[in-house]
């Protein structure tokens, strides 16, 4: 059904629904960020709006990126596919080598590039890079993807980047792998092979979890958070917060677990504070909001003008989906603890800016849809 | 490049719907955590978020039988600091030093210690607490508290016992009836952040304390005071080591007074009494504290000596091996096997009846009677009269009877048992057994606790102390009352005789072990009225100086007590 607005002259489309959801999530995120961080940041920095201000700045930067990417014709990025890949790989290497003067550590792991006032996490860059790179790669050889061998060829190219990222950020590596698998899955007509890959992937994750010793502690903390001592502390605090929420929560701003009990409540564990303050009702609303966002992306991907655009949006959609699912699963102790942020809501500059760039990209693809082709 | 491969679209849909599926699983998980497990996690979280401060419950009072308060509480304060909330540490330290009189470095150490709640001093009187509160310094907490207070200080100290820092009973009634007296502590729950700092504008939750129940005892403050004065007098006059007095009702075992002089100060239970002052600060301080707290009426055994002849006589009457008219001859000694056992009157009592024998407390008569009963049967009477078991008094640490094994009792042992030597029992055991013999044959359980009452004097629980009936025949009991009245009116107990009253009793003078030390225990056991005993008094004077005969020094003490309490108890002449 073609949509018709203001006469019938306008033939291009722009997904305002998606834009609205993004803006809503960002605003909601700011409110929750302020709620969860104000008490501790007032104690730590003497300014209850410390994190709020920083995040507002991040959003401002992100908005610039989003509008730039939205305005720009997304086909331009085809040329930058390889550059993005090698660039991400390079940055990851810099971080891995801990090049002095260019990197900085946080929380005991070196994950940051820092040049003067500008700092970012190359692992976040890697996510968008892999989307742009894979979309380009697959679009060139759509027919060949019928064959398992050519799929493997594509897959092999991803190995260096995934490994580089995995060394000090396993969760991001898993997200990157997930994005890649989703994009290949959409591009290829095969089903069975992907099922096998999925099973293998699950087995691999289990093996990895059990081999790396510090992650085994995490497994222990996941199974028995109450007896795991310090390792299970964060999980237990999150569960306390969630459990305290009940059906409608304690009310916005009324969380007690954010008073330093949930460590850095504005980061990975912000969803637990949402649960405590807004209850099951609020938590389900947030999940629905994300599902709504993914639905808009599905619509955009399905109606994209070309395969390249569809693949870009598929990548972005899987990126968001994986992060949301992983984050909530971690916070509810459904899976072992791993640092994944909740998109648009958790505090964090790099991820927000890149996420908004991806949103710009998705909006740009939506712009290319011709109204008369919408199904 | 156009694309319309349907499989691409189908696969995008598959991705979307699997995400929807996963979201539903997560929502299910949330429902489980928040609705079904919510209560559990909420409780746990509250535990973590709230700091508890105890509100001590007022401990129940201990009352005598007439409601006179023997132990109650004084309102005091506990001063503590919360490190994180102190804004002016120097001013707080200066103030605490000034108000509490504690050395500065001690206060400084506690104020600067990083802890959620640090106690500075407890048992601070209320005015000081209010003054500290009036300064209004942040981080200083004044909690109302109770301290045990004993209005009569030394009165019945070893029976009442005292409490420790956590309000728990340590010895005596305070420890035995702790669960009725202690009450339930209340709580002040304050919400704090992870560092322990109180969160403003969230009110305190209070759980009010429940005061403990009162314990009404069978003690009578007046009788206890009479007895203590009498003990005090004997203690000083005879330069004795200690004087124990038990006053009980022989018909039900209710203890009306129990003195073990010297008593200690209940309000300062850890301060050694005058007699032990020299050990203060030495290694032996704790040992002497324990000695000071020891209730010798219950915790220690002794050889009863001639007072035990009451039991020998009762056993013989019960066994039917002697009648009141039986004649005996005392040459001043008796030979048992190869031993020559002397009578206390070395020249001998000559010819005498059984009645005269008990009046004279003649050893050969009782050895003779004991031999008639025989070792095996005598042992059976020990069992029958309840001497082999503890009395079951409601005070801690009762000592057991120290007795020969049945098969080890030869004729010599039997002879010595007959006049109360070569075995040991506690004073309360003697008093209880004699009570049971003279009350018609009901083995009573001695006791101090009577009932538990709440603050409105409503009885919550009445304690039941069972009596075992028929340990001897009523006829035997009656004869014993007659015999013991004779002892006081005409025999060795005449120093306890009071004009116009019928008093029964028996004296004793026993030598402590080792015999070579020549230390004696003088005692007298008496009861009144002789034909229907309502009160029984046991006086034990340990290691008196000078004359040590029970009839000479212990009987007058009992007489003095009787003179005071018989009119007081309104027992007719």
From TrEMBL, chain A:
Topological type in the membrane: Multi-pass membrane protein
Tagged with keyword Membrane: yes
Catalytic activity annotation: [GlcNAc-(1->4)-Mur2Ac(oyl-L-Ala-gamma-D-Glu-L-Lys-D-Ala-D-Ala)](n)-di-trans,octa-cis-undecaprenyl diphosphate + beta-D-GlcNAc-(1->4)-Mur2Ac(oyl-L-Ala-gamma-D-Glu-L-Lys-D-Ala-D-Ala)-di-trans,octa-cis-undecaprenyl diphosphate = [GlcNAc-(1->4)-Mur2Ac(oyl-L-Ala-gamma-D-Glu-L-Lys-D-Ala-D-Ala)](n+1)-di-trans,octa-cis-undecaprenyl diphosphate + di-trans,octa-cis-undecaprenyl diphosphate + H(+)
Top-level class of the enzyme under EC nomenclature: transferase
Transmembrane regions listed in the UniProt entry: 12-34, 54-71, 83-100, 120-138, 158-188, 194-212, 269-295, 307-332, 344-365
Keywords: Cell cycle, Cell division, Cell shape, Glycosyltransferase, Membrane, Peptidoglycan synthesis, Transferase, Transmembrane, Transmembrane helix
GO cellular component, one term: plasma membrane
Keyword Transmembrane helix: yes
GO biological process assignments: cell division; peptidoglycan biosynthetic process; regulation of cell shape
Compartment(s) of residence: Membrane
GO MF terms, alphabetically ordered: lipid-linked peptidoglycan transporter activity; peptidoglycan glycosyltransferase activity
EC number in record: 2.4.99.28
Signal peptide stretch: none
InterPro entries cross-referenced by the UniProt entry: FtsW/RodA
Its job: Peptidoglycan polymerase that is essential for cell division.
PANTHER family for the chain: CELL CYCLE PROTEIN, PEPTIDOGLYCAN GLYCOSYLTRANSFERASE FTSW-RELATED
Protein family (similarity comment): Belongs to the SEDS family. FtsW subfamily.
Name of the molecule in the record: Probable peptidoglycan glycosyltransferase FtsW
Originating organism: Roseburia faecis
From TrEMBL, chain B:
Coiled coil: none
Protein name (Swiss-Prot/TrEMBL): Peptidoglycan glycosyltransferase
GO BP, one annotated term: cell wall organization
GO MF entry, a single one: penicillin binding
GO cellular component: plasma membrane
Entry keyword set: Membrane, Transferase, Transmembrane, Transmembrane helix
Predominant subcellular localization, coarse grouping: membrane
Domain of life: Bacteria
Domain Penicillin-binding protein dimerisation: 54-201
Pfam families in UniProt: PBP_dimer (PF03717), Transpeptidase (PF00905)
Domain Penicillin-binding protein transpeptidase, residue spans: 244-563
Transmembrane segments: 12-35
Record-stated family: Belongs to the transpeptidase family.
Location in the cell: Membrane
